[in-house]
Amino acid sequence: MTAERSQLYYSCVFLHVSFQAIQSKVMTSALGDDTPCWLDAQLLRMLSGELQRCRQEAAPFTEVCQALDTAIYHCGLLMAQCPASVSRRLCQHHIEAIISPLKLATARLSGRASANSPSSAGQRLRSWFGWR
Q: CA torsion angle for 112, 11, 126, 76 (degrees, to 10)?
């Protein structure tokens, strides 16, 4: 793995773990699913900026760019509604929609992208909704 690819890999791992920590915090909240989610908008802005930076650095890796574009899109949707304008359930949905492509980007950067990972947009959408 080249130094550039390695640095991008570790940045994606950082983002993946960061969003997993947020997801865990949201999921373990004692509040009900329909109550507003109170994420730290400043933290989301920082992570969004890091996602954007990673996307720029991923330009030579087309398959990684696609995954990061999806994560950026969902992060933008989440940020547009935060703080407190989105229910915990919808917040969890957006966070999972950010984590999944980050996991795929990390796997692609490491060369471990599995053969069963969805490759087309339709396959990703079906797997995201749990359809087979």
A: -170
Tokens 């917040």 found at? 91
CA dist 46 and 120 (Å) reads 30
Query: Tokens in use for 83?
Result: 């703080």
The type of residue at 118 is P
**Gap between the Cα atoms of 22 and 44, Å rounded:** 10
Whole-number Cα distances in Å, 111 to 61, 122, 131: 12, 23, 26
pLDDT tens digits, 18-60 = 999 988 888 887 666 666 666 778 888 999 999 999 999 999 9
Q: What is the C-alpha separation between 123 and 44, in angstroms, rounded?
A: 28
